[in-house]
Amino acid sequence: MFRHLGSSRFRCAYVVLLMALYWMVEPISLYATALMPVALYPLLNVISTAQATNMMFVGGLLMAIAIEHSNLHKRIALKTLLLVGTSVNRIMFGIMMVTMFLSMWISNTATTAMMVPIVEAMLKELDESPEVQPKNTNHDKQKTATIRKALLLSIAYSANIGGTGTLTGTGTNLVLTGIFDDLYPNSKDLTFTRWFAYAAPGMLICVLAAWIFLYLSHQNLISYSAHQITSNKDMDESKDKIKELIERKHKELGSLS
C-alpha cells in the first residue's frame, strides 16, 4: 500500500480529499476551492498543463460574467458608439473587429458571451433615447429586431473567424497541437508565431468578407437606419445630439478607479 504513495493515483486522491475538506470547512471560497485542481494537478505532475486547456474556456466565461456584472460592457458599448458612429454598418464593423480580437485570445464561446451584452446595451441606448427614436414608429420594432439579428450574426461570424488567428484561439487548435505532437514528437515547426503569421492574414480577409456579406444582406435596412434613426431635419445636428447623449451616458458610469 505504502509503495504507491508517490504514484499519480495517490496524488490525485490527495487533491480530491483536500478539496472535499475545504468544501466542508470553507476556509476559502467554494469557487476558489473548485479551481484548485487547475494549479495542483500540474504541480503534482498528475496531468500536464497541456491537458488542462478546458480551464481556458471556463476562465473566459468567468471573465465575461465579471465584465457584465461590473457594467464594463456598457462602457465598451458606449465607447464603441463614440468611435464608430451610429450607422448600422459602422457599428457592425466595430463590433466584428472587437470580437475578432478577443476571440484570438479567449474561446469563441466566451467571446460571444461577452459581446452579446454589449450589443444589447447599444440597442437599448438607441431605443430608449428620445433623441434617437425613428421617424416611422410603425416599423420600429421590426427594424430593431432586424438590426439585432444582423449584429448578433456579426458576432457569431467574427468570433469563429477570430478563433483561427492564434494557436490558443479555440479548443480545436489545441486539439490539433496535441495530434501534431503525437504524430511528429521531434518537430518544433508548429509554434505560436508561425501559426499567427500564417493564419492572421486569412483571418482578416475572412472578417472583412463577412462584414461585406452582412452589409449587402442588410443593405436596405442600413440605408433606412442611416436616414430614419433621428427625428431632426438636419442630420448633422442630430448626430451631434446622439454623440452628446452617448457621452452623457458614459460619464454617468463614473471613473474606472
Which properties best describe this structure?
2 domains; single chain; about 260 residues; membrane
How many helices in DSSP terms?
12
- Total number of distinct structural domains: 2
In whole angstroms, the N-to-C terminal distance is 56 Å
Element-level helix/strand string = HHHHHHHHHHHH
Strand content range: under 5%
Helix content, binned percent: over 70%
Structural class: mainly alpha
Radius of gyration: 24 Å
Average pLDDT number? 75
Subcellular location: Membrane
Keywords: Membrane, Transmembrane, Transmembrane helix
InterPro entries: SLC13A/DASS
GO cellular component, one term: plasma membrane
Explain how this protein is built.
InterPro entries: SLC13A/DASS. Keywords: Membrane, Transmembrane, Transmembrane helix. It is found in: Membrane. The longest helix is centred in the C-terminal third of the chain and has 26 residues, at 192-217. The protein folds into 2 domains: 1-52, no CATH class; 53-252, no CATH class. The model is unreliable at 226-234 (pLDDT under 50). The chain has 257 residues and is an all-alpha fold. 24% of the residues are buried. The radius of gyration is 24 Å and the shape is flat. The chain has helices at residues 8-25, 30-34, 36-43, 54-69, 72-84, 88-103, 108-128, 140-162, 171-183, 192-217, 219-228, 235-252.
Brief summary:
The protein folds into 2 domains: 1-52, no CATH class; 53-252, no CATH class. Helix content is 73%, strand content 0%.
Q: What secondary-structure arrangement, pairings included, does this model have?
A:
Blueprint: H1 8-25, H2 30-34, H3 36-43, H4 54-69, H5 72-84, H6 88-103, H7 108-128, H8 140-162, H9 171-183, H10 192-217, H11 219-228, H12 235-252
